[in-house]
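Trying the structure run again after the queue cleared.
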Amino acid sequence: MLFLSKSGQHVSPVTWNQMLDNKDENTVVVDVRNNYEWELGHFKDSIHPNLTRFSKFSEFAKRFSEEHVREMKVMMYCTGGIRCELFSGMLKDEGFDEVYQLEGGILNYGSQPDTHNWRGKMFVFDDRLVVPLSQLEDENQMISDCGHCGVPADTVYNC
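Done. Tokens:
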């Protein structure tokens, strides 16, 4: 597990917002959570690796390095920051030098007042399943649909 010694640079939620607000075509934002987590909420302009399991990220890292210029700036995030510790190292191992990860993940981002780059809600691993990221109505819009019937829903599977 040499990846952990190569993890990406941690950036605060304030710096994260600045980086997102000023990102250009040489910057890509990667959500390293599972599909259902991404469907409920994510940062604007982020991509998701279409992962069904965390163990599939190494395959994504290889594919990503083949499809993107290694001089790109990569910003990555997850729920609490743990997955990024490993996955950012995998991208660095694939040759990406500028890899940044949101310090404390989405949970930390949601604890500060400026969450304007977030879309939707956040999946949590407890009985609640889904929570708003902030108390601002327009930032907590429903962006997901029921996986069975297609009706807008706060959870991926509603009916």
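The mean pLDDT is 82. Worth checking whether this holds up in the mutant runs.
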